[in-house]
Amino acid sequence: MKLITILGARPQFIKAAAVSRALRDEHKGTIDEIIVHTGQHYDQNMSGVFFEELDIPKPGFNLEVSGGSHGAMTGRMLEGVEKVLLQEKPDWVLIYGDTNSTLAGALAAAKLHIPVAHVEAGLRSFNMRMPEEINRILSDRISTLLFCPTDAAVANLKHEGIVDSVHNIGDVMYDVALFYRERARKQSTSLRDLGLTEGEFALATCHRAENTDDPERLGAIIGALAEIATQLPVILPLHPRTRKLLADYGMNQKLGGIRLTDPLPFLDMVALEQAARLVLTDSGGVQKEAFFYGVPCITMREETEWVETVEAGANQLVGASRDAILNAFEIAMRQGQPNIKAMPYGQGDAAVRIANLIAQH
Ligand code: UD1
Predict the structure, then answer these.
(1) One domain, residues 183 and 155
(2) Percent of the chain residues past pLDDT 70, beyond the cut
C-alpha cells in the first residue's frame, strides 16, 4: 500500500514522527510512506531541526510554499499536492491537525477520490474566526478515516453527523511525550544554557493569529508577561510571526525582563516544559504537554479544544486580558502542581493504532 503523508507546520512534524515510526516498525514492507512537506514552515529551527531530532524520514517532495495570504498559500499548496498525487497515485493520504497544509492535503486528495485519514479529527473551538477551526471542520468533512484523540472529539463529529469510521485512538502527542520525556531530560542542556533553576521559571509561548494580529491583545499579553517577569524569570521562545509583529507594532521596548529565545528544538522545549514552575501559552500542543508533565498551565485564549485539561483543574482559560492573566498567575503560584487523577488522552499507543487501522483499510 502506498501512503502519502502531507505536513508542513511544526506541530505536524512532531505528530508525524510518532506515526511514521509506528508505520516503519509495525508495517515495514506492507505500507510504503512518502512524506510531502508543503514548505509552510521552512526555517531550520521551525522545520529542519525536527526532522533531525525526531528521526523523521526525509520528505520525498518539498513544495516550498510559504507565506502570503491564507488563500494564496492554501491555493498554491493545493496545486502542488495535486501534482504529487497524480504522479504517485497513493492508496491513502494522511493529514494532521488543522493548518493550511492539512486543508490543502485533504482537498487535493478528496477531489481525486483518494481516501483521506485525518489525525486529530473532531477537535473544535467553536470559534469560526480562527483559521484552524475552518481548516479542521472542512478536513473532517471530506476525510474517510477519522482518528479522534478524545471522547469530546468523537461527540463533536457526531453532532455534525459524522459517525462512520470514527475512532478514538487517544492522542499521538501523549505517545510523543512518553517517548521523549526522559531523553529530553538527559540530552537537553537548555536549562543550564539559560541559567535556569528547576521549578523557578515560567515558560511562555504566543503565536496564534487571534493574539498576534491584534495589537491590543498582544500588548496585554506582553504587559502581563513583563509583570510576571518582575517576580519569576519568564522564557519566551519567539515564533517568527510574533517576532515580526512585535517589531511592526513597536512593542519591543515593552518586553521588560522577559527573556526571548529563538524557537527551540523539540527536546529543549520538552526539557523546559518539565522543569517550569508554570506554562503560559496559546498553543494547543503546549497546553497538553504541560498537562502530561503535571505543570500548571494558563491558556491565553477564550476557548480551548483540549477541554479535558481545564476540567481536570490543570489549565486556566483566561483570554488575553492583562488582569486575567495576572490573576491566574497568582492562583497557579498558590495552588502548585495540579493533581491529575485520570489520563483522558489514551494509553500512549495512538500511533500504533493509527498505523494498524490504516493497514486494515
Ligand atoms: C501555523 C498554523 C497554526 C499552528 C502553527 C504552529 C495555519 C493557518 N496556522 O501558524 O495552526 O498552530 O502553524 O506553529 O496553518 N515563518 C517564518 N519561518 C518559518 C515559518 C513561518 O518566518 O519557518 C513566518 C511566515 O513566513 C509567516 C509567519 O511566520 O509570515 C506565520 O507563518 P504561517 O505558516 O502563516 O502561520 P503560523 O503562525 O506558523
Answers:
(1) no
(2) 100
